[in-house]
C-alpha cells in the first residue's frame, strides 16, 4: 500500500515538474530584449549615438519602463522580431546607461541595460587645415610685394608673427576649432588686411591672384592730323590714360630716354613718331597684355577742302482754285543745287545739293530736300462742300407690317434708291453732289442696310407643344429639385403664370393643393386660345408611400500591404435590397479580407424583381488586389463572412455621407 502511495506522489511531482518546465520554456521564448549602441562622429565633432533595441521574441513587445523617455518613450511597441533604432547627439564622452523594460502580448516581461564605455567613443578631433597667406616683403611695407606661403594648421597662424607683427601680411578668413569644456567649438578668424587698399588692389584681390596681382594697362589713344573747316591742316595727338597702378613714359622720334608722362592729351606734328610704354606702379604690380605702343602721325588722306553747308529751297505750296506752287533754289557759295524730281508746280519734288570744286559737306556729300507742293487744284476745287446724311429707315415690323425708307432733303445733294424696293430686304441709297457742289472725300456716298425679311400675320402665331405638369404620386420626375412642384416648358413667345405670378424657371416649388396655370402670348405673338388655362391638384411626392424603388449598392475596398491583408465591403443603402455575386458566386453583404494577389469581379442586382438598380451603379465592378513592390509575399487564403466588422464599416460609410456609396432615388405611387 505504501509503495502505491509513494508511486502516486512521484507521478504527481513529475507532472508538476513537466508543467513548470514547459511554462519556463514557453516564457523564455517571449522574454528576449536586447540593447546595443553605435557611436560615430558628427560634422561638428560631437558624438552621435545610435541605440538599437531588438525584440527577439515571436510576439509583440511594449516598452513599460525607460531610463530616458525622451529617447525611448514608454508605450513604444516592437512587432515580432523587430529592431528599432533611436538616435541622440552627445557633446562629449559620456558614460550614459540606457535601461529598458518590456512586456510581451502574452504577459511575459524582461529588461536589458547598456552602458557606454570610454572605448565606445571614436576620436572626433578636427583636422588641422592648411591656410595659404600672402607674406609681405618686407613685412612692414610690402614695397617688394608679397610671397605666397602655406602654413600647416590654422592654429599656427594665430600664434605666429604673421598675425601679431607683420603689418602688411594678408591672411584669409578661416574657421578653426578649440575644445571648450571637452566640447569642440568652431571659431571664425576674420582675416587680416582683406579690405585694405594696396595701390588699387584690395587684400582679397591680392590673395585671389596668388599674391601676384596684375593689371591690364589701358592703351593710349592716337589721332592723325585732320583738316579744318577752313581747309587748313591740324597737328595729330596722343592721349595718355589714367590707370591706377600704372605709370606711362613717352619718347618722341626715337631720341633720348623715355620720359614719365602724366595723363592728358598732347599734340604732335605730321610725321612725328610717338613711343609709349607702361610699367607697374609700384613695381610689384604685374602688367598683363600690351605694355608698349608706337605710332607715326599721318597727314590727312586727301586735300583739305572748305566746309560748306547746303540750305533748303524756298517752297510755296499749291493754293486753292487752280493756283500752282513754286520751288526757288538757293544761292550758296560752294554749293550746286538742282531740281531732280517733280515739276516745281505741284506734287512731290526733290532738290539735290552737291559741293562745288574745292568744297565739301560735313557727312554725306549729296544732300536732298524733298517735300510735296500739294495736289494740283482746279476751279472746281472752290465749289462749296456739302455732306450727305443717311435716310430715315424704319425696319419691317411684326405680323406683316412693311418697313420704309424716307430720302433726306439736303441742299446740293441728290439722293436715289439704287437697290431694293424700300419695303423689305436689302437696300442701298446713293448720294451724289448736285451741280456746283462737292463732297469732302469720295464723290459718291452710299447708305446700305437691311429692312428685314417680309413678315406675315401667320408669323405671329404660337402654339403650346408641351402642357405644364405637376408633382403627383402617380408620376416620377428625377430632374425636379422639389417634392411639390409645377413644371412648364418655357418659351420666350409665351408668358406663364401660376396663380397670377409670372413663372421664370422650368420648375416652381408650390404648396400641395389646387393651383391654376395660365399661358398668354407675349407682345407681337398670337395664341389660340389666349389665355390657355390648366388646373392641378399638386401632391408632395415626399408624402407618398413607396411601392417600388431604385436600390443603391455600396462598396469599398482597401489594398494589400506588405504587412496587412486587403479587404472589400459590399452591401446596400437599404439593408437587404441588393444581392451580390463575387466571381460568379452568390455572396452575402459584409466585409471580406483578401490575403493574396487576385482580381475579383463584383455584380450587384436588386433582391426584388420589382425594384430597379441605381442608374449611377455600373456592373460589373472589378477589384485588382496586388502587393506593393518589394514585399516578402506570403500566401494567404481568401476568406469571408458576414461579420460585425463589415456591417460597422457600412454604417460608417453611410455616416460619412457617401464615401464609396451612391445616392438613392425613389419612385413613389399614390397611397
Can you characterise this structure?
The chain has 5 helices and 53 strands. The protein has 671 residues and is mainly beta. The chain folds into 7 domains: 30-120, Immunoglobulin-like (Sandwich); 131-212, no CATH class; 215-296, Sandwich (Immunoglobulin-like), CATH 2.60.40; 312-380, no CATH class; 383-455; 459-543, no CATH class; 546-669, no CATH class. The strands form 19 sheets. It has a 4-stranded antiparallel sheet with strand order 4-3-6-7, with no helix packed on it. A 4-stranded antiparallel sheet has the order 18-17-20-22, with no helix packed on it. A 4-stranded antiparallel sheet has the order 39-38-41-43, with no helix packed on it. The longest helix has 27 residues, at 2-28. The two termini are 91 Å apart.
